[in-house]
Amino acid sequence: MAKYGNDDVAFLLVDGYSVLGSITELTDNVEALTEESHGFGDSWASQAFVGIKQATLEQGGFYDYETNGVHLALVGQNGVSRVVCYGVEDNLLGATVVGWRGAMQANYQRIASRGALHRANATYKVNGIVEEGVILQPLGAVTDDGDSEATPHDNTAETTDGASLYLQVSALDLDGLDSAVVAVYDSANGVDWTLLDTFTAITAIGAERRTKTGTIRRYLAVSWVFTGLTTESPSMTFMVAAVRL
Asked: N or C end of the chain, less CB within 10 A?
Protein backbone atom coordinates (compact mmCIF):
# COMPACT_ATOMS: atom_id res chain seq x y z
CA MET A 1 0.00 0.00 0.00
CA ALA A 2 1.43 3.36 -1.01
CA LYS A 3 1.94 5.90 1.75
CA TYR A 4 2.25 9.62 1.17
CA GLY A 5 3.73 12.43 3.21
CA ASN A 6 4.16 16.18 3.32
CA ASP A 7 6.57 16.29 0.37
CA ASP A 8 4.11 14.38 -1.85
CA VAL A 9 1.44 17.11 -1.76
CA ALA A 10 1.51 18.36 -5.32
CA PHE A 11 -0.35 21.69 -5.17
CA LEU A 12 -3.17 23.63 -3.56
CA LEU A 13 -4.70 26.07 -6.02
CA VAL A 14 -7.57 28.43 -5.22
CA ASP A 15 -8.79 30.25 -8.34
CA GLY A 16 -5.23 30.07 -9.62
CA TYR A 17 -3.57 31.25 -6.40
CA SER A 18 -0.90 28.77 -5.39
CA VAL A 19 -0.93 28.74 -1.58
CA LEU A 20 0.78 25.42 -0.91
CA GLY A 21 3.94 26.93 0.54
CA SER A 22 1.97 28.73 3.26
CA ILE A 23 -0.28 25.81 4.21
CA THR A 24 0.56 23.35 6.98
CA GLU A 25 -2.73 21.47 7.23
CA LEU A 26 -5.46 20.53 4.78
CA THR A 27 -8.58 18.65 5.86
CA ASP A 28 -11.43 17.67 3.55
CA ASN A 29 -14.61 15.96 4.65
CA VAL A 30 -17.30 14.62 2.31
CA GLU A 31 -20.48 13.44 4.00
CA ALA A 32 -23.64 11.71 2.83
CA LEU A 33 -26.65 13.07 4.69
CA THR A 34 -28.76 10.36 6.29
CA GLU A 35 -31.95 10.09 8.32
CA GLU A 36 -32.98 7.46 10.84
CA SER A 37 -35.30 5.08 9.01
CA HIS A 38 -36.21 2.47 11.62
CA GLY A 39 -39.78 2.17 12.80
CA PHE A 40 -41.78 0.80 15.70
CA GLY A 41 -40.76 -2.71 16.62
CA ASP A 42 -37.20 -2.47 15.27
CA SER A 43 -34.52 -3.37 17.80
CA TRP A 44 -31.66 -1.68 15.88
CA ALA A 45 -31.41 1.78 14.42
CA SER A 46 -31.13 2.02 10.63
CA GLN A 47 -30.09 4.89 8.39
CA ALA A 48 -31.29 5.92 4.93
CA PHE A 49 -29.42 8.18 2.51
CA VAL A 50 -31.57 11.24 1.74
CA GLY A 51 -29.85 11.80 -1.61
CA ILE A 52 -27.75 14.81 -0.65
CA LYS A 53 -24.01 15.08 0.01
CA GLN A 54 -22.13 17.92 1.64
CA ALA A 55 -18.45 18.70 1.96
CA THR A 56 -16.16 21.02 3.87
CA LEU A 57 -12.53 21.90 3.28
CA GLU A 58 -10.33 23.49 5.93
CA GLN A 59 -6.87 24.89 5.32
CA GLY A 60 -4.54 26.16 8.01
CA GLY A 61 -1.15 27.76 7.62
CA PHE A 62 1.02 30.83 7.80
CA TYR A 63 0.02 34.39 6.98
CA ASP A 64 1.74 35.58 3.78
CA TYR A 65 1.20 38.98 2.14
CA GLU A 66 3.44 38.28 -0.84
CA THR A 67 2.12 38.84 -4.38
CA ASN A 68 -0.38 36.06 -5.11
CA GLY A 69 0.19 34.78 -1.55
CA VAL A 70 -2.33 33.23 0.80
CA HIS A 71 -3.65 36.53 2.20
CA LEU A 72 -4.44 38.02 -1.21
CA ALA A 73 -5.98 34.69 -2.24
CA LEU A 74 -8.41 34.69 0.70
CA VAL A 75 -9.10 38.21 1.95
CA GLY A 76 -12.49 39.62 0.98
CA GLN A 77 -13.60 36.32 -0.55
CA ASN A 78 -16.07 35.12 2.09
CA GLY A 79 -19.28 34.10 0.35
CA VAL A 80 -17.51 33.76 -3.00
CA SER A 81 -17.64 30.46 -4.87
CA ARG A 82 -14.10 29.36 -5.80
CA VAL A 83 -12.58 26.68 -8.03
CA VAL A 84 -10.15 24.67 -5.88
CA CYS A 85 -7.79 21.88 -6.93
CA TYR A 86 -5.34 19.96 -4.78
CA GLY A 87 -3.21 16.88 -5.18
CA VAL A 88 -2.05 14.77 -2.25
CA GLU A 89 0.13 12.31 -4.16
CA ASP A 90 2.64 13.78 -6.63
CA ASN A 91 2.77 16.45 -9.32
CA LEU A 92 2.92 13.82 -12.05
CA LEU A 93 0.90 12.78 -15.08
CA GLY A 94 -1.94 10.51 -13.92
CA ALA A 95 -1.64 11.34 -10.22
CA THR A 96 -4.85 11.92 -8.29
CA VAL A 97 -6.29 15.42 -8.08
CA VAL A 98 -9.37 16.58 -6.17
CA GLY A 99 -11.47 19.28 -7.80
CA TRP A 100 -14.07 21.48 -6.12
CA ARG A 101 -16.53 23.19 -8.43
CA GLY A 102 -18.07 25.79 -6.20
CA ALA A 103 -15.98 25.90 -3.02
CA MET A 104 -17.87 28.59 -1.12
CA GLN A 105 -15.39 30.34 1.16
CA ALA A 106 -17.20 30.43 4.49
CA ASN A 107 -14.60 32.25 6.54
CA TYR A 108 -11.06 33.63 6.59
CA GLN A 109 -9.33 33.82 9.95
CA ARG A 110 -6.09 35.64 10.81
CA ILE A 111 -4.39 34.77 14.09
CA ALA A 112 -1.57 36.81 15.61
CA SER A 113 0.01 35.27 18.72
CA ARG A 114 2.90 36.37 20.88
CA GLY A 115 5.99 34.27 20.27
CA ALA A 116 4.55 32.60 17.18
CA LEU A 117 4.23 33.20 13.46
CA HIS A 118 0.99 34.74 12.26
CA ARG A 119 -1.55 32.22 10.99
CA ALA A 120 -4.10 32.36 8.17
CA ASN A 121 -6.92 29.80 8.07
CA ALA A 122 -9.91 29.35 5.77
CA THR A 123 -12.94 27.09 5.54
CA TYR A 124 -14.89 26.21 2.40
CA LYS A 125 -18.29 24.60 2.02
CA VAL A 126 -19.26 22.92 -1.20
CA ASN A 127 -21.60 24.92 -3.40
CA GLY A 128 -21.47 22.53 -6.32
CA ILE A 129 -19.62 19.24 -6.40
CA VAL A 130 -16.42 17.56 -5.20
CA GLU A 131 -14.85 15.11 -7.64
CA GLU A 132 -11.66 13.13 -8.01
CA GLY A 133 -9.70 12.81 -11.24
CA VAL A 134 -6.20 12.70 -12.68
CA ILE A 135 -3.54 15.20 -13.69
CA LEU A 136 -3.25 15.64 -17.48
CA GLN A 137 -0.67 18.43 -17.34
CA PRO A 138 1.39 18.66 -14.13
CA LEU A 139 1.72 22.10 -12.58
CA GLY A 140 4.71 23.77 -14.20
CA ALA A 141 5.94 26.65 -16.32
CA VAL A 142 5.99 26.86 -20.12
CA THR A 143 7.58 29.56 -22.26
CA ASP A 144 6.46 28.54 -25.74
CA ASP A 145 3.60 26.81 -27.55
CA GLY A 146 3.41 23.07 -27.02
CA ASP A 147 1.36 19.98 -26.32
CA SER A 148 1.50 16.66 -24.47
CA GLU A 149 0.42 14.41 -27.32
CA ALA A 150 3.70 12.47 -27.07
CA THR A 151 2.98 11.76 -23.38
CA PRO A 152 -0.83 11.57 -23.04
CA HIS A 153 -2.80 10.16 -20.16
CA ASP A 154 -3.92 6.61 -20.95
CA ASN A 155 -7.20 5.63 -19.28
CA THR A 156 -6.88 2.10 -20.85
CA ALA A 157 -10.44 2.43 -22.26
CA GLU A 158 -12.90 5.05 -23.43
CA THR A 159 -15.76 6.17 -21.21
CA THR A 160 -19.26 7.23 -22.20
CA ASP A 161 -20.57 9.56 -19.46
CA GLY A 162 -18.62 12.73 -20.18
CA ALA A 163 -15.95 14.47 -18.14
CA SER A 164 -15.10 17.52 -16.06
CA LEU A 165 -12.01 19.46 -17.14
CA TYR A 166 -10.10 21.71 -14.74
CA LEU A 167 -7.60 24.46 -15.53
CA GLN A 168 -5.61 26.38 -12.91
CA VAL A 169 -3.22 29.15 -13.96
CA SER A 170 -1.00 30.29 -11.08
CA ALA A 171 1.37 32.63 -12.93
CA LEU A 172 1.20 34.45 -16.25
CA ASP A 173 3.46 36.92 -18.05
CA LEU A 174 2.22 37.54 -21.58
CA ASP A 175 5.05 40.01 -22.28
CA GLY A 176 2.96 41.99 -24.74
CA LEU A 177 1.01 39.10 -26.26
CA ASP A 178 -2.78 38.91 -26.22
CA SER A 179 -3.57 35.74 -24.29
CA ALA A 180 -2.82 32.07 -23.79
CA VAL A 181 -5.19 29.34 -24.93
CA VAL A 182 -5.28 25.87 -23.38
CA ALA A 183 -7.21 22.99 -24.94
CA VAL A 184 -7.80 19.29 -24.27
CA TYR A 185 -7.74 16.65 -27.00
CA ASP A 186 -8.81 13.01 -26.95
CA SER A 187 -7.79 10.04 -29.07
CA ALA A 188 -8.72 6.40 -29.49
CA ASN A 189 -5.20 5.31 -30.43
CA GLY A 190 -2.83 7.97 -29.07
CA VAL A 191 -1.95 9.07 -32.61
CA ASP A 192 -5.01 10.70 -34.17
CA TRP A 193 -6.28 13.57 -32.01
CA THR A 194 -9.65 15.36 -31.86
CA LEU A 195 -10.36 18.60 -30.02
CA LEU A 196 -12.40 17.84 -26.92
CA ASP A 197 -12.77 21.35 -25.48
CA THR A 198 -11.01 24.70 -25.22
CA PHE A 199 -10.79 26.76 -22.04
CA THR A 200 -11.55 30.48 -22.09
CA ALA A 201 -8.60 32.53 -23.35
CA ILE A 202 -6.28 33.35 -20.43
CA THR A 203 -5.22 36.93 -19.68
CA ALA A 204 -4.61 36.66 -15.89
CA ILE A 205 -4.15 34.05 -13.21
CA GLY A 206 -7.36 32.16 -12.48
CA ALA A 207 -9.22 28.88 -12.82
CA GLU A 208 -11.99 27.32 -14.86
CA ARG A 209 -14.01 24.11 -14.86
CA ARG A 210 -15.70 22.89 -18.02
CA THR A 211 -17.88 19.86 -18.66
CA LYS A 212 -18.25 17.60 -21.67
CA THR A 213 -20.96 15.02 -22.30
CA GLY A 214 -20.86 11.75 -24.20
CA THR A 215 -17.89 9.60 -25.12
CA ILE A 216 -14.41 10.50 -23.91
CA ARG A 217 -11.82 8.50 -25.81
CA ARG A 218 -9.06 6.47 -24.18
CA TYR A 219 -6.22 9.01 -24.40
CA LEU A 220 -6.23 12.65 -23.26
CA ALA A 221 -3.63 15.31 -24.04
CA VAL A 222 -3.25 19.06 -23.52
CA SER A 223 -2.12 21.84 -25.85
CA TRP A 224 -1.21 25.46 -25.10
CA VAL A 225 -0.70 28.40 -27.45
CA PHE A 226 0.26 32.02 -26.84
CA THR A 227 -1.68 34.38 -29.10
CA GLY A 228 -0.61 37.75 -30.49
CA LEU A 229 1.34 39.43 -33.24
CA THR A 230 4.67 39.98 -31.48
CA THR A 231 7.54 37.62 -30.80
CA GLU A 232 8.09 38.29 -27.11
CA SER A 233 9.04 35.91 -24.28
CA PRO A 234 5.86 34.91 -22.45
CA SER A 235 5.59 32.40 -19.61
CA MET A 236 2.72 30.61 -17.92
CA THR A 237 2.51 28.26 -14.95
CA PHE A 238 -0.55 26.03 -15.11
CA MET A 239 -2.04 22.58 -14.58
CA VAL A 240 -4.88 20.66 -16.22
CA ALA A 241 -6.89 17.81 -14.75
CA ALA A 242 -9.74 15.61 -15.95
CA VAL A 243 -12.49 13.76 -14.10
CA ARG A 244 -14.22 11.06 -16.11
CA LEU A 245 -17.86 10.90 -15.08
From this structure: N
